[in-house]
Structures are given as C-alpha cells and as structure tokens.
Amino acid sequence: MRLLAVWLINALALLALPYLLPSIHVANFTTALAVAVVLGLINTVIRPVLVLLTLPATLLTLGLFIFVINGMMFLLAAWLLDGFVVDGIWAGIFGSVIYSVISWLLTKLLLSSPKS
Length: 116
Hints:
mainly alpha, 77% helix, 5% strand, globular
C-alpha cells in the first residue's frame, strides 16, 4: 500500500514540475505515472553503476557531479517516454532537484506517522 502511495506522490511531484520549471513538460497524469515508474527503475538499476563509474569525478567535484548524474537520469527518462520532455541538461539538473524536494515534502506530509 505504501509503495502505491509513494508512486502516486512521485507522479504528483512530476505534474507540479512544469508549473515551477517551464523547460520540463509532462503531457498528462498517465504519463506522469509512467515516468515515475521509469525513473524508479533507472535510479535502481542504472544510477548506481554510473555513480561507481564516475566516482573520481564525483570526488574531484566534492559530490557535485551527482547532480549531473541525476540530470542525465531525467534526460534518459525523457528520451525513453513520449509525453515527457526535458529541454536540456540544465533543465534536467534543476528538474531533478525540484522533483526530489517536492517528492520528499509530499511524502513527509502525507505518509509520516504522528509521534505519540
């Protein structure tokens, strides 16, 4: 049940992105659901390999290269799916940061259990 809720929250975060960043376009809610799944799979399978391969660059930039990797993951999702458009690497970087913040906030607000 929690997995389904997180999936819907991520889709809602994707739908909010075009309002905050005009260089990212999401066609509709169905596309947002598909992008949430694809981003989850990309971040589970491809991202760890890229982080490992680019470890020297990440260390040299004190971790800032991770933002570039996240932007590339956004661009890869846009390349794989119709209806999700990212207009460049900077849009991907800023979009991934904003997406992460929105997703984290919504998850904390909607799924956190109150402390007794």
